Amino acid sequence: MRSVGNEPLSRHALAFVLAGGRGSRLQELTDRRAKPAVYFGGKSRIIDFALSNAVNSGIRRIAVATQYKAHSLIRHLQGGWNFFRPERNESFDILPASQRVSETMWYVGTADAVYQNIDIIEAHGTKYILVLAGDHVYKMDYEIMLKQHVESGADVTVGCLEMPRAESSGFGIMHIDETGLIQSFLEKPADPPPMPGKPDKSLASMGIYVFNSEFLFDELRRDAADPNSAHDFGKDIIPYIVKHGRAIAHQFNDSCVRSGDDPRAYWRDAGTVDAYWGANIDLTDVVPELDLYDRSWPIWTYAEITPPAKFVHDEEGRRGQAVTSLVSGACIISGASLRRSLLFTGVHVNSYANVENAVIMPYVNVGRGARLRNVVIDRGVRIPEGLVVGEDPAFDGKRFRTTENGITLITQAMIDRLET
User: Fold this and answer.
1) Which end of the chain, N or C, is surrounded by fewer C-beta atoms within 10 Å?
2) What's 371's DSSP letter?
3) Contact criterion met (CB below 8 Å) for 45 and 33
4) In whole angstroms, what is the distance from residue 259 CA to residue 316 CA?
5) Is the pLDDT reported for residue 315 higher than 90?
6) What stretches of 104-251 show up as alpha helix (H) in DSSP?
7) What is the largest distance, in Å, between two alpha-carbon atoms of the chain?
8) What is the rounded CA–CA span in Å between residue 310 and residue 327?
9) What is the pTM of this model?
10) 57 is in an annotated binding site
11) Predicted local confidence at residue 1, as pLDDT
12) Hey, how many other C-beta atoms are within 10 angstroms of the C-beta on 201?
């Protein structure tokens, strides 16, 4: 792609989104869908955040690699992300694992997912490749990271953020010098090393990498020929470049898209039931850290056509109402009470039900007189009349999936077992 004047670097970049992971720590929420396809924030999917960041940053060539139980994810991408036009030099490629290299090999690692699609990526002729994880919730201007990559002369630029050391074992952990040069990189260490002067913090990789395209292709081919490699960016590609090249860290604070004057930098890996519940419930705060109402940096998604939410009945003890809650389109709150809850599209809550601290996915029906507290309810579940959850953790644990923090996950299969 030919550079013209002072065009943004994003116009010469392709975003490659890795969206093939299951996310097994989300338990039954990923029995039928990949983690990037899990619902989030009332009407979005988790993958919408990485994709929206790319579009809002000016990137118009995007590829998404899928693998684990990808049908709902692919359907979402086809419905909500089909607005790219080739005549405007835009593209959106969905790349399911299809044994392109070998009849016995699916994607065996994150780097292999890119390697197996080199011919497709090369055909776009972009100068830079931005590799993104498709399973995190955040807002980030990738143009700022691209500029740092070019100005620093890096072989790879790695997005990073400070996080509590106790929560860092599931991430790549790095040590940098005062210039941002990465001096060591450990993938998911059991005992994450602390940052200098910050014993309770570690510097973690966000799973975001910027490469010059030709450099990346050479590295992928080198790695593919190594029989001892796991063909993974965090385990193999990045540590190799740290030792033999120039790897630079990009601090998330420098490119985080904040809400107005709010100094907080929001990033979440909603990878456990507790974290998923917390990240959604946080959106009910008066001023949440993640601003879904910011029209200057919108979160694009599949916009299902629905009627407005409806609240009916106004009798003592049977009043349709919601306090400190987010209620999506086509929801009907019929003589029920909601507090500090988030309802996705098409949820029906029937009379005399009481719902508190709940994340309820699309098209759930909550029966009359049910009392639900501290719950995550999967799509399409029919809650029986009078069901009580959240008042007796020991009893809940015998019927449903209950976390150490007291959050109860409910699926239709669990409900069906109660009725047999």
Assistant:
1) C
2) E
3) no
4) 39
5) yes
6) 110-115, 118-124, 142-152, 213-224, 238-244
7) 72
8) 9
9) 0.94
10) no
11) 42
12) 18
Secondary-structure breakdown of the chain: helix, strand, coil percentages, each rounded to the nearest 5: 30, 30, 45
Residue carrying the six token digits 């100068």: 127
Dihedral sign (CA 263, 267, 273, 274): negative
Per-residue burial over 155-165, b if 16 or more Cβ lie within 10 Å, else e, is bbbbbbbbbeb
Residue 254 · residue 144 · CB < 8 Å? yes
For the beta carbon of residue 302, count every other beta carbon within 10 angstroms: 16
pLDDT in tens, 363-392: 999 999 999 999 999 999 999 999 999 999
For the chain, what is the mean pLDDT?
93
Tell whether residue 107 is among the known ligand binding residues.
yes
The answer to whether the annotation marks 188 as part of a ligand binding site is yes
What CA–CA distance (Å, rounded) separates 114 from 64? 10
Q: Which residues contact 152 (CB under 8 A, 6 or more apart)?
A: 180, 246, 248
Non-local (6+) Cβ contacts of 211 within 8 A are 128, 129, 131, 155, 156, 219
Q: For 321-354, write each residue's pLDDT tens digit.
A: 999 999 999 999 999 999 999 999 999 999 999 9
Residues 6+ apart with CB under 8 A from 25: 271, 272, 273
Q: Is 325 annotated as a binding residue?
A: no
Is 187 part of any known ligand binding site? yes
Q: Token pair of 174, please?
A: 């790095």
